[in-house]
Design brief:
The protein is of the alpha+beta class and about 650 residues long. A hairpin with a 6-residue loop joins strand 22 and strand 23 (about 625-630). The protein is about 30% helix and about 20% strand. Strands 1, 2, 3, 4, 5, 6, 7, 8, 9, 10, 11 and 12 form a twelve-stranded mixed β-sheet that branches. A five-stranded parallel β-sheet has the order 18-19-20-17-21, sandwiched between helices. Strands 16-15-23-22 form a four-stranded antiparallel β-sheet. It contains twelve helices and 23 strands. The longest helix is centred in the middle third of the chain and has 43 residues, at about 305-345.
Amino acid sequence: MTAELVRGQNHPLPGNRLEIRVSAGTPVVAAVTLGDAEGRAFGPGSGDGRSGPAAGREWLAHPGAPQLPGVEVPRQAAAEHRLAVDLGAMPQDVHRVHVLLALPVGRAGAPVDFGAAPAPQVAVTDPDGTAIAGYTLTGLGRETALLAVELYRRQGTWKVRAVGQGYDGGLPALLLDQGVPDARAVAQEIHDAVEREQSRSVDAPPAPTSPATPTSPTSPAAHTTSAAPTVPAPAEAPPAGPVDYRHPRRRTVPAAPQPEPASASSAPPMPPHPPQYAPAAAASAAADGPPVPVAGDAGGWTLEERLHNQIWGMFEDLARTVAAYRSAEDFAQSRYDQELDALLADPRTRGGAQAEAARDQAMTKQVALVDQARAVLDRDLAQLAAEAEVVEPALPPAFAGWENPAWHAYEVPEQPALAVRLGGLTVPEAPELPIPLLVRLPLERGLWIDSADDRGVAMEVAVATAARLLACHPAGGFAMHALDPAGSAATAFAPLYSGGALALPPPAAGAAGVNEVLGRLTARVDLLQMAMRGGAADSLPPGFDQAEQLLIVNEFPYGFDDRAVNQLRYLADEGPAAGVHLLLVADRDDASAYGPVLDPLWRSMLRLTPLPSDHLADPWVGHAWTYEPALVPPGSQVVAQVLRRLAAARPAYGR
């Protein structure tokens, strides 16, 4: 299975002989540098003991000198490249292989930078074309040269890492950063070699069109991909207008007509449906068999955004197909009841063989309608299950469950994640098909973990959720505070304290500790609000911590007086806009003494439960979705491992 990498992610390579396939949608120049243990294209590995400028050039393969031991690059600028790599033939001093891409200079009609070109895609494959890993370089702007990916050797094993580092200064700046001496002259030599070679560029393939319906870069048909494990098709140029977030494998179709009941007045009311999406099998009915699902096959600028939108497309699809099945089931039952009422209303048909035959006929019609609806539901569920099997392994840690191997390869992010996974959602018709519950970051509302059923498990969910939020932010970009007035959660909080997420010593117990922490966070919100309203957000006091803040409150309202309750309500209402968020572990009945004073607090927060519960409803058809918390597998040390990596990364950021 192909690994879809994100920036900074790595993947092991199964063998030495590889192909690196580049698909850029516009002609680019490809080059490779061989680096030493420090990553510099300069060292004593030329084979004859030479050093100095000659050694640096001998570790650079480019169109003017396309071959090095174990590497061969193309001689032309082209939209698609294949670079041959044999890691077993590399000199012993080589520890890194850097793949460089640059826009050719002086070409009429060529993009001026990568921000005006389609996002380049790099795939590492076996020599026979079997894909190993892929990476799409997104988020580019004025860069004209890129360090796309690197192959690196660690403890005798080669891996590929997605880099995506761009250079505004073009090829000279990139070569200089690689340690190539006289980088400007070498860059000019490369461009001259490209000009001398006869161009055999491969144009980007046109978007597929239909005789009846022309497509555009944002239309679903334009994003259909092949199931063959070859180089991914070049991405279309970013549309000038807003991004189309519809799932590319789901086309809008009119809802299927429902049979008219015998009496309009007795027909069950139809729930309001969301926009109907045909699954992939219906969108390509003319094809031989259903298409193979692809991870990240949705609209968006980055792979993370595409996976996020794909998951929500799956959620909407499941809501739609279950709503259609329930509606058909209700209609079948309604028609059966109407026919029975009609039989009972006529004295001539209340009894006897004729009445029994009529009842059997009505029952047969009902069963046939339900079976037909179930067949459609099973078809859609099978397609969604196949899509989930492909999507789940490709999820980044922020979107993945704790049992996903992605957490074992966790690296501290450089930017906050797009969203965070807080659990899974299922419906009774498909309990084996969980859809990740993703919430966008930064949080717009607080989280309330209901401890009514099991206080111990509720704290486990709270700590796992806090660790996940911490892992979704850069080192030092997320700070935590805890209120545990009775000290009952000391054991549960231990991983956060030992990992440095919570500062030692813990706040004072009882009302004094509650008032001190709440007062400090309330003053922070007041200060940020005044700065934002006065247009002086950049004039905060020196040393002011810009990190997002999370307050974990256990056993609310124990230790809270009236003033503290009002401060907590203030943080719930005004805190998110100022980067202060709440994670409340509480039983609502324990706070019943405050009466309706706290009702706005509960309503403003997203309620999570430590045990599976069907308390969440979607806004389209009102389904009651069963929420399952994102618990850490028994015996797993993944949270401690993630917290240790975060703690190790803090000194590099001055935290």
